[in-house]
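Bumping my old thread because nobody answered last time. Still need a sequence for this structure:
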């Protein structure tokens, strides 16, 4: 058994933007454990695991998640750092950074900034349901106010997307009015108007993702 080496002989795709993917592991190699003192479960079918295997696994997993969860969420976001766009002047990664930067400049708190940073993390990979995607990602760690905002921000955008929808029935475009008296209506409308639909501007200077990383770590270490 050998441990995989992290080499990457060719990190450029045919489309010409950089990726950083290791080559496929050779048969028989293992990925390294996070801690050298940890143990592998020496079984390759979960059906064969028994209680002692799961208790070891769960012990290692909880420490793993504590350290790795927020880091790997940010890696998910950063995966599209150099992605091309389909028409906006900036890509989805920069849109997310711009939203977070604008919220930070306006003095919003850490949770709002992290919700803004991640609000479109699923936009490319789960386009039709990306609000639900991020709401589920952050649900255990953030307030109902931001869960609701993330879940509904796509609907609240409709009134701003003139000519976007083929069938522009007023009931569909104005669907947000169903929640006019909802306690989170104003925040969601404000988020979309002031921090989302204008965060496509190449002239707005963004804070770096490293600036936001400690905030993401702190939010993911919370329990609601
Ligand atoms: Fe969105
Ligand atoms: Fe957005």
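Sorry it took so long. Here it is:
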């Amino acid at each position: 058994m050998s441990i995989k080496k992290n080499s990457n002989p060719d990190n450029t795709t045919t489309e010409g933007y950089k990726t950083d993917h290791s080559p496929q592991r050779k048969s028989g190699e293992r990925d390294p454990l996070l801690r050298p003192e940890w143990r592998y479960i020496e079984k390759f079918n979960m059906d064969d695991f028994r209680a002692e295997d799961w208790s070891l696994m769960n012990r290692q997993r909880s420490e793993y998640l504590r350290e790795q969860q927020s880091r790997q969420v940010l890696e998910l976001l950063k995966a599209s750092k150099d992605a091309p766009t389909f028409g906006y002047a900036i890509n989805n990664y920069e849109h997310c950074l711009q939203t977070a930067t604008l919220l930070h400049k306006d003095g919003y708190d850490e949770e709002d900034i992290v919700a803004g940073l991640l609000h479109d993390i699923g936009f490319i990979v789960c386009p039709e349901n990306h609000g639900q995607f991020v709401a589920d990602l952050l649900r255990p760690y953030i307030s109902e106010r931001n869960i609701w905002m993330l879940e509904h921000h796509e609907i609240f955008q409709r009134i701003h997307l003139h000519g976007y929808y083929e069938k522009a029935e007023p009931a569909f475009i104005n669907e947000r009015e169903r929640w006019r008296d909802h306690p989170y209506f104003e925040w969601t409308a404000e988020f979309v108007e002031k921090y989302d639909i204008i965060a496509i501007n190449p002239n707005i200077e963004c804070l770096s993702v490293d600036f936001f990383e400690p905030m993401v770590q702190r939010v993911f270490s919370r329990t609601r």
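The helical segments are 51-78, 92-105, 110-118, 130-138, 144-157, 170-173, 185-196, 209-220. Let me know if any region looks off to you.
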